[in-house]
């Protein structure tokens, strides 16, 4: 009689504790690298978006300055206290005030097509201030054009000569051109060379006040108004 020996239990396949720990370590390294890459991508996207927004704000500022200065006219205006001011005043620190034409009126509101505007620096913010009426009105809320501005410089050109300020006593109510320099807090600087009143001799706004400096007006050359343009 042959006795049957008890069979040994079959060995089961699996991972040792060391293998599991190594796998977890590798997974942790991959996860950490993925988180780092994702964080870098988010930060890069945020920085790029801020840079694009800043470039867009700079372009809007340049477009507004070019449009406003290009449409400047010889139209003195009164301030809130009733004092008559020159048609164009400008300082070396970039403070500018003048009257421009071409104010869009899509709602057909009872107002003039000319508008008094001003540019000024408040802290590190460049502002554009507009007025609802040409004479005696308080300004509308200022519009922020550009932030992170360390300083603004301005010069005004007339007949080949540059001046650090303008008040209409330089021989004309308006300069022919203006140079605006914007210095940012990061050390960069931008310079704009802009024509004022399209760089030509400005004429008064119809119905405006005559300029005491004697700027050219229609019919002021001695020709009777009824004989202009061949009539």
Brief account:
23% of the residues lie in helices and 26% in strands. It is α+β, with helices and mostly antiparallel strands. The model is unreliable at 206-231 (pLDDT under 50).
| Count of separate DSSP helical elements | 1
Shape: elongated
Structural class: alpha+beta
> What is the total domain count?
1
Rg from Cα: 34 Å
In the predicted model, the low-confidence regions spanning at least 5 consecutive residues are 206-231
Residue-averaged pLDDT: 81
Q: Alpha-carbon distance between the termini?
A: 147 Å
Major β-sheet, in short? 6 strands, antiparallel
**Order of SSEs:** HEEEEEEEEEEEE
Task: Kindly state the number of beta strands.
Answer: 12
Fraction in helix: 10-25%
Strand share of the residues?
Answer: 25-35%
Could you explain the architecture of this structure?
Strands 1, 4, 5, 6, 7 and 8 form a six-stranded antiparallel β-sheet that branches. A four-stranded antiparallel β-sheet has the order 10-9-11-12, covered by helices on one side. A two-stranded antiparallel sheet has the order 2-3. It has one domain (20-103, 113-206). By secondary structure, the protein is α+β, with helices and mostly antiparallel strands. It has one helix and twelve strands. The chain has one helix at residues 17-70, and strands spanning 72-73, 77-78, 84-85, 88-90, 96-100, 115-122, 125-130, 143-146, 149-158, 161-163, 177-184, 189-195. 21% of the residues are buried. The radius of gyration is 34 Å and the shape is elongated. The termini are far apart. The longest helix is centred in the first third of the chain and has 54 residues, at 17-70. A hairpin with a 5-residue loop joins strand 2 and strand 3.
């Amino acid at each position: 009689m042959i006795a049957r020996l008890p069979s040994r239990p079959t060995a089961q396949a699996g991972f040792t504790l060391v293998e599991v720990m190594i796998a977890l370590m590798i997974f942790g390294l991959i996860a950490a690298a993925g988180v780092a890459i994702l964080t870098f991508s988010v930060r890069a996207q945020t920085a790029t978006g801020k840079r694009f927004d800043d470039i867009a704000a700079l372009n809007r500022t340049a477009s507004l300055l070019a449009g406003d200065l290009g449409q400047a006219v010889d139209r003195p205006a009164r301030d809130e206290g009733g004092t008559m001011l020159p048609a164009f005043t400008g300082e070396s620190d970039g403070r500018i005030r003048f009257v421009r034409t071409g104010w869009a009126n899509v709602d057909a509101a009872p107002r003039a097509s000319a508008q008094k505007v001003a540019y000024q620096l408040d802290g590190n913010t460049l502002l554009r201030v507009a007025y609802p009426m040409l004479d005696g009105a308080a300004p509308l809320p200022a519009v922020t054009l550009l932030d992170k501005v360390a300083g603004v410089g301005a010069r005004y050109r007339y007949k080949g000569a540059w001046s650090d300020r303008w008040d209409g006593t330089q021989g004309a109510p308006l300069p022919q051109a203006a140079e605006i320099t914007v210095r940012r807090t990061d050390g960069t600087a931008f310079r704009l060379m802009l024509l004022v009143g399209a760089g030509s001799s400005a004429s008064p706004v119809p119905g405006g006040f005559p300029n005491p400096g004697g700027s050219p007006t229609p019919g002021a050359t001695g020709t009777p108004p009824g004989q202009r343009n061949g009539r």
